[in-house]
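Weekly structure sync, notes
Attendees: PL (lead), two postdocs, one rotation student
Agenda item 3: pending single-chain targets
PL asked that the sequence for the first pending target be pasted directly into the notes so everyone works from the same version. It is reproduced below exactly as submitted, 519 residues in total.
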Amino acid sequence: MLFGAYFRLLRAGYVLAREGALSIISIDGLPPALAPMRLGIWLGRLIERPSVRKTGHVERLNAALNRLGPTYVKFGQTLATRPDVVGAAVAQDLAGLQDRMAPFDPALVPAILTDALGDKAAELTEMSPPIAAASIAQVHKAMLVPAEGPRRAVAVKLLRPGVEQRFRSDIESFYAVARLADRFVRSTKRLRPIEVVETLDRSAQLELDLRLEAAAISEMAENIKDDTGFVIPTVSWDHVAHNVLTTSWVEGIPIRDHAALDAAGVDRKALAATLLQSFLKHAIRDGFFHADMHPGNLFADPRTNGVIAVDFGIMGRINRRERRFLADILYGFITRNYRLVAERHFEIGYVPANKSVDDFALAIRSIGEPLHGRTARDISMARVLGQLFAITDLFDMQTRPELVLLQKSMVLVEGVARALDPDLDIWTVAEPVVGDWLRREAGPLGQIETLKEHVKTAAEAAGRLPTILSQAELALADYHANKHRPADPLLRAMLLGLMGLAGLILLIGLWRLVMLPGV
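Predicted structure, written out during the meeting:
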């Protein structure tokens, strides 16, 4: 199996290099720490097709990613939203990966539905040809005619047959390269490549069970029920299975069709702001966000100028501490408080404690200052990413695998938003969401939630005390029963340690309550 993973990896490297994938990476923009990568790119470009070397156009890259499998397609979808990183021509070529892939044989659909839904499959009628086909699944429009209730239009999502096996093969290859990098490339250890692949692996497993996607839609619907400007479909639970998902049909204009948006009178600047602010609300306020917001999954409602999102197979979740980290980082850049940005990186463990906070704040300032007062049109994200990587290397910054999906999603959302509005001022748009949340956290409601967390921690500690005390009593009884025997220093030490642990847990719980700020 390991040999097969390495073979697939070598094949993928050859195919991508042959079709010009390496030509989109600027060697000159890579920091000196990545000298081995510079050499690898130079060697890889020796096998490029002559047409790529001559014209610089990589029109065959789309087909190459399709051929390699769904995981590579996902990577290409992310690149398609970043013309500032890969170039406008490459981004346009890759845009076809978002929902215009070749569908699987339509003759397979009836059997798939019957096997998955049983008798309920008969309630799905007038099944259309695929209206969207992506790397993992395809979507059909149908009419739902239930035994009870009104007839209505629905979207039926079907997993591609065999896609789980292909995903498994891709992930095995990623694990192989992660292990090689972790073992032999010292500079990548701090990036924790194996843990990053594990995060992607868990995400892929969730995406390949459409019942979990249905649950994600349900949870997000509860979170945004009082919001405006962001709409998602509803689930028909009677028509959901491991490989089938049925939701309400939503009408909208594809968000990447700028000509159609303009013709319908959609305010693209307002739409870009709504998209970015909605994502920040979901991430910072709710801690639960759509983690695959490429243009193929987003539509605009011309009646409300709002965003319609579909495809909830990849969702991100961050806890309250991570949400506070994200909000503080964004707010620090917005207000140019680079000391705050630096301190939060140390607190969450991004930067080792033996590094200088002041030096790191200075490095962050070198990135943040050139961004202020400029629009998205004037900012080269390729250059910014290069600067960030140089800083992470200088300060031995550690990758946080739990934030990988958040970072990837922010790249996607920003890319879509800046395509809608090249003059987008990211900081100005983000401030209302970030500032309001931080002000709430500092206010009474935020303090109450913090108090609840501390009380919960103390209660959990107190809940463990009876067990600990019971164990201490048994140990004490055993000690008295054997006290006339020669003393056992190890037993006495264990007994004292157990009793001390019980007291320490109680003291910590009381200290958290007494020392809570604002209480």
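Discussion points:
- The first helix runs from residue 2 to 18.
- The radius of gyration is 27 Å.
Action: rotation student to compare against the earlier draft before next sync.
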